[in-house]
Known about the structure:
alpha+beta; twelve-stranded mixed β-sheet; 5 helices
Amino acid sequence: MNIKKILAMAAGLSLCICLASCGDTDSSTRDASSVSDNTTSTQQTDSTTDGGADSAADSKTDAQPEYDPNGDVRLFDNIKSQFAGNYKLTANLSVNGGEAYPVVYEVKGDLRYIGATISGMMSERFLTADGELYNINHATTTYDKYGSDEIGNTIYKSPAYDPLFVATGAFEKAEVADGVISETYKLEFDTIEGTITYGFDSTTHELKSVKIDSDDMDNESVTDIVLTAADDSDFEMPDISGYTRNN
């Protein structure tokens, strides 16, 4: 598939989310608040504890060895060994500096899932085992569908569908500032140039943010990250038998 069409389809998620925020209906085949609820509950867990003493003890337990930005150990390698090819990333996404909204990315083998919610309106994207791509807008009860022959293999290499690992190239630099360890890598996606920067908590070494910078595609900033293994049930297609196909 032409790289420009891939990027247009990736940008389509942002477009369908904007349409969802303007919709007049809150009907959905899924719980439209599920993405935002998951993100909020995780943030509350991070900031709320049953007692100050327990919190202090947990902090000491979670502390990791001091990070050397000039050393050979990279925190990206740790998360890659745990989650590459099988992860669920719940976070907030900002595109080109715009307002952040709750989002979920999931990868398991060749399966891909993206879900986003604005004002209770959900949009979802599925890349199925048959290689078909569905872009579903629940607010407008419409969807787009692309066959495997249209998609080809390029989409599997796109950071728009796997923002953590698939387009990460050579290591460029690392630094520690304001409680954040930043590791920057070259962006490798077709002819597109840019960087991917991972932000880790300097105490716990947990992944907190991912930022994609490029002059050739949308810049994305993913924050408030919760990273777990993929959930098989999230890849199950919703009932869209009553939806209108746009393409």
